[in-house]
Amino acid sequence: xxxxxxxxxxxxxxxxxxxxxxxxxxxxxxxxxxxxxxxxxxxxxxxxxxxxxxxxxxxxxxxxxxxxxxxxxxxxxxxxxxxxxxxxxxxxxxxxxxxxxxxxxxxxxxxxxxxxxxxxxxxxxxxxxxxxxxxxxxxxxxxxxxxxxxxxxxxxxxxxxxxxxxxxxxxxxxxxxxxxxxxxxxxxxxxxxxxxxxxxxxxxxxxxxxxxxxxxxxxxxxxxxxxxxxxxxxxxxxxxxxxxxxxxxxxxxxxxxxxxxxxxxxxxxxxxxxxxxxxxxxxxxxxxxxxxxxxxxxxxxxxxxxxxxxxxxxxxxxxxxxxxxxxxxxxxxxxxxxxxxxxxxxxxxxxxxxxxxxxxxxxxxxxxxxxxxxxxxxxxxxxxxxxxxxxxxxx
Length: 395
Ligand SMILES: *Cc1c(COP(=O)(O)O)cnc(C)c1O
Hints:
By secondary structure, the chain is an alpha/beta fold. It has helices at residues 11-17, 43-51, 65-78, 89-100, 115-124, 140-146, 169-178, 191-194, 228-242, 248-259, 261-280, 299-305, 320-330, 360-366, 382-394, and strands at 82-86, 106-110, 131-135, 151-157, 182-186, 204-208, 222-226, 285-289, 312-317, 335-336, 346-348, 372-376. The radius of gyration is 22 Å and the shape is globular. The mean pLDDT is 96. The chain binds pyridoxal-5'-phosphate (PLP). Residues 88-90, 114, 157, 161, 186, 188, 208, 210-211, 220, 222 line the site of pyridoxal-5'-phosphate. Pyridoxal-5'-phosphate binds next to helix 4.
């Protein structure tokens, strides 16, 4: 039986069914294939598979059926031709970079990306002769001014962490293509349930599957989605040799996570919007950063580009670090952790954790004030989350 054309189905259906190919056992749920290698029917078959004359599994660093199901499902969800699954979100960015870039190339990267992404470009790709310029995510003129003839890759996250600034993906894709460069979008915060960068012209989507794709904080994994030819020719060969493969067990957990992705992302957005509106009405809150509030500077762009505002809310207190820590320490239910994308709400103080390695000036330039708190809003009862955030006022 041939596979259905999953692009003809709705996102909720793709998330549950795309990529599954039943074995002779007629199992209903996706199976896990915990095998490092595969056997061949004959010496000739082994030889033909090693030369690539006939397709098929050889070794799980190259391909694995459970990982393949995850890849096909995520590709369908993002509307991409091909997905390459890897061991973590950082492995996705590293694999894309090593596969695509060479000495002399230039990368243009948003300043507001995940901290380890900055370090990867700044400390490691630089050692191999790839220079990176960091620019403000939401300032298209800054991107235009910084692009060079050697620029091969533009890289961004939108919305940004923790200030939820938003980039116009279609505009930056156009800029990249006018200069012969490629655009990669880290779609970790929105997932394809809320935003599909490839449809807006991006060439690659990056995922940390660790976050919302899993959705319940269990496994570390990542993926790159994009055009088949570029991924087959430049990126997948590096994975095969570089070796940051996704484990079949993790792929299976992500498959279970994806089944509820559309439902969860809607619910995260509803809870986060409720919390952001409530925070904005509190006299002790100076400012709320949330893409779903009309006070967000790019509210119109968000409504064009995203199906819903997502689960990340940040807010600022007047009293700096002392007050921020007091609020965090007074909570009883919220998890004090920098992770996100979980059904459990997490709370963090960016200035002393995720952004603690930046200098004072760098933090100020990035807008990370000492009174800033970030919430990754989970799926608990909204009133219970509000009560916990409020506890420091009554303690
Ligand atoms: C967590 C995260 C990453 C890195 O993913 P890992 O799975 O932890 O390697 C990359 N980008 C964003 C936006 C993230 O939140």
